[in-house]
Structures are given as C-alpha cells and as structure tokens.
Amino acid sequence: MAKRHKVELLPAKVRETFERMKQSSPNKLKLMKIKGGYFVYAYAYLYDENQKRHKYVQHYLGRINDDGTFVERKRSIRHPESFSAYLQSNFGGGIENALNRLLYPDVVTLSALRVLSMDSRQSIAEIAKQVGIPPSSLASKIKRAIETYAISKTVELRPDTFGYTRYLVTVKFVSESKPSDEAVKALLEKEPRVQLVLRMSGDYDLAIYLLAETTAVLEDILYQIRSSPVFAAYSSVWHVNYVVEPYGWFVPLRNEFFEHLISQKVWHRTKETPKRQQSQLTFAEYVVMSEMNKDASQEFKEIEERYRLNVGSAAYAYDKLIGNGIIERATIVMQRLPAKYLAFIFVVQTNIDEFNRSLRSMLEEILEETAFPTNKFVYVANVSSPYGIVLLAPIYLEEDLQKLKNELAERIKGIKLEIAIATNVLVGKVGARKFDMKKSQLYNLLQQLKQNKK
C-alpha cells in the first residue's frame, strides 16, 4: 500500500522541490513514497451531486528524483492534461455546481475573510466579536474557508523600508516561438530578487516582479536573464517599470529573498562594526520577519525556542518592525481561487489632463466592492514606463472581462488599455485577499476628492 512519506525524512533536494511545487500550485498536493520513489499527486474533496456525498479524488502529476528534478508524467489520450479537466471528466456538471458555490461566500465568511486580511493573527474570539456571531459557529466557517481557498497566513512587508525598490518587467516575444514555462521557471526562481512571474497571453507574454537595491543591480540581473540560453534565442521586447504600490495592495515575498539577501543585513557585533547601522537588522528582527513571512500564525514563543532567543524578544522585534513600517500587518493570501483566470490590465496614460479629470471615477471603479471572496482587483500599482496603472483582476465569470474593459474605457479618460491573460503563475504568489478598502490609501484619496468637490 502506498504510504505518504514524512516531510522531515525526505532527501533535502526532494523536499525543496516539493515545497516549491506546493507554493506555486493552485491545487492541494501530496507526496507519496512508493517502492523507493517519490510521487506527486494533486487531490481534492468534492461533493458529488449524483451520489449526494463527498468524494476524495486524486490525480498523478509526476515524480521527484533524489537530485530534486521533477519528471512530469507522460501524457496519453486517456489522461486529461490538467487537474481541473480530470475533475470535470469525473464529475461533469456536479463540479461546476460545486465551484459556483465558492464564488459567493455567505456574509459571515466574507466578513471573516476581510478581518483576517487586515490582521491574520487575531484569535477566533476576537474575529467573532467583529463579525457578530459566536466563536463556536465562526471557527468552522474559517476552517472551511482556509481549506477551500488554500489560505496561507503571512506578513505584508514594505521592501523600500529596508533598501529595495520594486520593479515590474513586461516581456513580449516577437517571434512565434517562445521559451517553455519549465525553462522560464527554472531560470527565474533561482534569482531571489524575483518575487512573482506570470506567464501570459495577449499584449504581453511575461510579467516579472522583482526587487533590486539599485538600478545598477537591476540592469545586471536583467542582462544576465536576457543573455541566458532560455531567452537569448528568442526575439523579444522588454519594458522595465518603476513600481509604486498604494497602501492596500502588495506582492508576497518569497522565502528565498530572506534566506539569500536579507540574511546579509543581520548585524553581528565586531571590532569593525561595534554599533548597528541603520540599514541593519538584529538577529531577532531578521528571524521574526523571515518566520512570519512563512507562517504568520506562529506563536512568538515557538520562534524564540526554535532560535534560542531571549523570552519576549520575538514579540518585541515584531512590534518594532510594525512600528518602523517594515511590516504593515499580518495578513492572508488566497492561493486557490474559483476564478476562470487572472486578467493583467495595463492602463496606459495618453492624456494626463483627461486622466486627472476622471481620477474620481477611476478610484470608484477600483474600490468597488464585490460578493466574490477577493477584492475586485488583487493588485494595483502605479508604474512609470509608460506612465500608467497596472491592475490584476480575477475573472470569475466569462462575461466579466469584457464588462470590466467596457467599464474602464468608459470611466477613465485619456488612456488606452493593454490586456493579457495570466495563464500560469510560474514563480511566487499573487497577493489575493479581501482587504478592507475603507482602510486603503486610494479610499482616503477618493474621500479627499469628494470633499474638494463640495
């Protein structure tokens, strides 16, 4: 009988590969050890409308060799290419009905998602007070939402506070041939400054979100990427954008960013550096930042014991990081959405005067509340080349993209829209959550515009 192998007993390279797959997969994954090999399966518990019961279904994806390489299963006519296709072939209309129920969470669940997005470290009792139902009733709803949307708890960090600038690189291949997803992923995930990579179709083929200390570092990174065998053989056009994220939207940072880069900012007392520099972190601050990025639900006591820190030092470091604005908040990220796809929308400014006159309408569009489990836009940022705004919108219903395009074109003047469909998240995670828009920077700006109009 196949037996799931304990993660702590896995070969290090197998474990690293499996953890990366779990982070990037829209489905739940499990690893099974069968006759000395390590095999990866996607799985789900779904309600069968015909049999009126929940069923466990799994789908074989491939195996991980001892050296960490993933070997995808061989395709055949009898096997559908995706887990979604597999579910559809086994459940038919029942799956569609089940997925549709996930589009519109009940009012209590929506409220709980909003509270968790603003502070995921709150207890069930604290959340229940805000939502207005008994903790016993709320606990099961939160547990179900966490499982349904594959919610992870993390922290929202502002990289500019510790010396990093955000950049967004868009790529369009000129030739018909393009590098494979596997090759792009293998190359870009090695660079710890790269935090998110979207494979797309439409006006753009790739979106790469990365952090860099200086423009010189950025140029070196991009030159190395473009010169690599993965990209060098393909004709392409690259645009680099300086990014400003308004308060309320963020891109989760990869663990590799802390392990390879931020770890170098930890201050150690020496003769040469008897005092900590402003740009340096204490060991406790680094540990708390890194660990909370992985899992913000951890108790500070656990972190202190794991790293042999003084009692109370982890909580003190967390409060200090919050106070200095390095950590905005503990929050959540939904890694599995019942969305058809993500739409990448570049709102390019062509007439600044007309654009400014329609600013209020644009803010109302961005801040509009929805009955879906996430905000209308899961990412919003001002960019500089060309000047404009980048929006990332989950499209839950087929007609929503055209509707959204029409709304943006009607409400925002002096622009042109460039649109691509994100077909795959190759590296990192999208910051999908249910943020309280009344606490966002753009909401405050909208209120100011309304006040000035009076």
Task: Give an overview of the whole structure.
This protein has helices spanning 12-24, 83-91, 93-103, 107-118, 124-131, 135-148, 181-188, 215-227, 229-232, 255-260, 283-294, 300-307, 313-323, 352-357, 359-367, 400-411, 441-453; strands spanning 3-4, 28-34, 37-48, 53-64, 70-72, 151-157, 165-173, 194-202, 206-212, 236-244, 327-334, 341-349, 379-384, 387-395, 415-427. With 454 residues, it is α+β, with helices and mostly antiparallel strands. Among the domains are: 3-97; 104-148, Winged helix-like DNA-binding domain superfamily/Winged helix DNA-binding domain (Arc Repressor Mutant, subunit A, Orthogonal Bundle), CATH 1.10.10.10. The strands form three sheets. The protein has an eight-stranded antiparallel beta barrel. Strands 1-2-3-4-5 form a five-stranded antiparallel beta sheet. Helix 4 packs across helix 5, helix 4 packs across helix 6 (135-148) and helix 15 packs across helix 17 (441-453). The longest helix is centred in the first third of the chain and has 14 residues, at 135-148. The radius of gyration is 23 Å and the shape is globular. Residues 1-8 and 76-81 have low confidence and may be disordered.
Summary of the model, kept short:
The protein has 454 residues and is of the alpha+beta class. It contains 17 helices and 15 strands.
Fill in the keyword field for this structure:
37% helix, 454 residues, Arc Repressor Mutant, subunit A, 5-stranded antiparallel sheet, 15 strands, 27% strand, alpha+beta
